[in-house]
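Hi there,

I know you've been waiting on this one. I reran it after we fixed the sequence typo, so this is the corrected version. Both the input and the resulting structure follow.
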Amino acid sequence: MAEVTVKQLAEMVGVSVERLLTQMQEAGIAGKNDGSSVSENERQALLVHLKRSHGESADDGEPKKITLKRKTTSQLKVAGGAGKKKTVNVEVRKKRTYVKRSEIDDDSAARQEEEAAALQAEEQARREAELKAEAEKQAADEAARKADEEQARKRAEEEARLKTEQETAAKRKAEEEAKRKAELEARRPAAPSSDDRRGRKDKKKAPAGRTGRPGGRDDRRGGKLSRKPGARTSRKPSEHGFKEPTAPIVHEVSIPESITVADLAKKMSVKAAEVIKVMFKMGAMATINQVIDQDTAVLVVEEMGHKPKPLQENAVEEALMESIAQEEGEQASRAPVVTVMGHVDHGKTSLLDYIRTTRVAAGESGGITQHIGAYHVETDSGMVTFLDTPGHAAFTAMRARGAQLTDIVILVVAADDGVMPQTEEAVQHAKAAGVPLVVAVNKIDKEEADPDRVKNELAQRDVIPEDWGGDVMFVSVSAKTGQGIDELLEAVLLQAEVLELTAAPNAPGQGVVVESRLDKGRGPVATLLVQNGTLRKGDIVLAGLHYGRIRAMLDENGKPIDEAGPAIPVEILGLDGTPDAGDEFTMVSNEKKAREVALFRQGKYREVKLARQQQAKLENLFANMQAGEVKSLNIVLKADVRGSLEALIGALEDLSTDEVKVNIVSTGVGGIAETDANLALASSAIMIGFNVRADAQAKAIVEREDIELRYYSVIYDIIDDVKQALTGLLTPEYREEIVGIAEVRDVFRAPKIGAVAGCMVTEGTVYRNKRIRVLRDNVVIYEGELESLRRFKDNVNEVRQGMECGIGVKNYNDVKVGDQIEVYDTIEVQRTL
């Protein structure tokens, strides 16, 4: 082989020139450079040296294998702190062994081991490089963080310095301005006299020489013109208005249940892009208007160096209530709130009518009370506020609510009827609310009145009269003649004195919504009972899910008033909707806070409603899978007031059974509108209006689409009609009725017909076209039809008791003497709820 240079040999074997020269020096070949030639003997000596360095014998003649090592260095760019990129050097070392082709088969195992070792070394090198890069990245992040902190500290110091300089400069500027104004005042010449003016005219006429004319050439040669007094001789450098903070500002960020990225950035006083960048680094993609939950927001706030303050679910509402509770006034005595309760048609409203000298009962549909009425009356002994509750079974929730918001309960019991179901229920409501009872035994003027019976029946229910050693006052009254009314009022006021009822008239008005309705001309109208404080016209009221400013305030007689104190019932106009009966109301000073709480409550109510609907859907799904399809009656229900609507919903839903159910698609307060008619059309529902009517648009849709629309004014008429409709949806029952029995006395064989049974009709009538059973020893052995029924030779349709006949059973020839042929009929029986 021809001689080659060191550089050519390095390229042939794939190593650097420096490494090849180093290996040649180790082999004893010195004095070489990259241009020196390498002889065959020198190459052989170098090969022997390399073999020895790799653990092989030098006497084996030609080399069987050679191992080469290679080291490469590359650069890797990684992300550092504060968005900066760092460059990291990565060193990769490779080791490769070359073996002669003739030795491959003998050394395959050794080659595989060496390759595995080389791969393992390469993987180890790569892993070490990655660990090193990660360590350098962490170090870079730490350094960047420290640099950011140092930069923030420097910015804070610089801002403090700039602030001090600006204050000093402003102060100096003010002093200079004052000094300049003083000099101007001092230098301002006095008004010239007539002689001075004449002298100036003469001076103007005189010829001005070169040196005498002001502003002439000599003046220009002499230098610059003199400036006016107070003029600035030098311009200050412009100052930037931004003041860099002296230290990192840490905000306490209040975080609600959910918040948008933009609102979160606003609370931390940073740009929304910064929040999005931090979330991106945390592995969450977000946009500026995206809503994030409370946990994610807490992590983002902590990552940006601020203090998160998670708000409770009802923190806004609690904060408002606490601020209202702090505004307490001086306590003063107030009138008692009395609820009149009892069974239907026992004279509750008539008793209250006599006290109020009005005729409310005559105006109620069917003579029964279907609304909660609130009235206050002035008596000789003081003022009393009365609440009149319905006694019908459907108004259980109304009576319970009436017991909750009163101080004393008058239990009206008819002396001729005694204790009835709603009477017991009223006693239970009063005891559950912890309200004292005063029993008014009404209708004492009737001949069949028996007050002792009432006392005995109530005593059995732990209502013990005072004259029997108990603590309940019993008063015999007559709402018709007025007997005992004064004694009843004295008993109520005596009970009120014992209770020592007080309220704070100067506090913000608070109380309970007694009733609400939607008036077509006036909008939402709510009847309120003020329990504490004073409610005034123009106040902002928060009632349940609704709020508004009081535009008008009326008493129970419809007369306008300007304010209402404790224990006074009023009607208000101005709310944005009809609150539920029983909702608490309170006066709020800030309309923005009232809106926030109302919107929060509406959202919470909507979530609960959706969750309940979803749960009902799942429950119905599994129930329908197990028990088959349940028939339902869809209803769109509209009522005049919230209390009646609540009672109707409860009464109708109680009619549902396992087979049929009432599905109330939509409810509302006010007249029937076009949207209600469209909803009824889409859901195949019947429309029910309780003391309300449909408008012209709704009537047009009802007539055009033939929707069933019914108007009612008495609640139990609705219950009866819906019950009847549900009965029609029930699957009818089928009952079997035996109409005749024939006993087999003999059996005849006919070639064409088969076995013919000669029978005697022992009971009822045997019919040819009805189904039969064949009984043997009172056990059914066959069930089918008659093929023929003959009386002598004639075919007949029926054979009555005591007559003989021939019967051919269809598809059955095993009739024997003594068998009984039973004829029966299937009757459809309609079910009821």
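Quick highlight: The chain has six domains: 4-140, 252-309, 320-328+506-603, 335-500, 630-729, 733-829.

Best,
R. S.
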